[in-house]
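Retro notes, structure queue

What went well: the backlog is down to a handful. What didn't: a couple of records were mislabeled last round, so from now on we paste the full input next to the output in the thread. Example, using CYTH4 isoform 3 from Pongo abelii:
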Amino acid sequence: MDLCHPEPAELSSGETEELQRIKWHRKQLLEDIQKLKDEIADVFAQIDCFESAEESRMAQKEKELCIGRKKFNMDPAKGIQYFIEHKLLTPDIQDIARFLYKGEGLNKTAIGTYLGERDPVNLQVLQAFVDCHEFANLNLVQALRVVKTKRESV
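Corresponding output:
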């Protein structure tokens, strides 16, 4: 007699009913497992789709940043306008100043041109730009070295 698969004739009617219930529960569990597998596969597909969309958005943003830098380096005012229009930069004076201070991919001469304009907004940006620098407790030579180092690193 095989204990794992007994012959139906060897089982009592109660055991046969219990065996049928067990088989039915097993079938239900296998179906539930398959449903869970399908749901998990759907979630992974959605994650992949989301990641692809996010990568696409990031690539688009990087492309817009590159275009904006080129525009800025050719005409600083138009470049800033482009960054603001494409929501890569807010029109806030402090944000513009920090953006210019970081100077990532921006021509230093173009930054100077923008900051040197006599428009009231540009003068406010210039003041905020100067405030971005840390000159506290430095003498003139040390402060100039900080500026020089900053310019060389950008």
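Agreed that this is the format going forward. Reviewer comment attached to the example: The mean pLDDT is 88.
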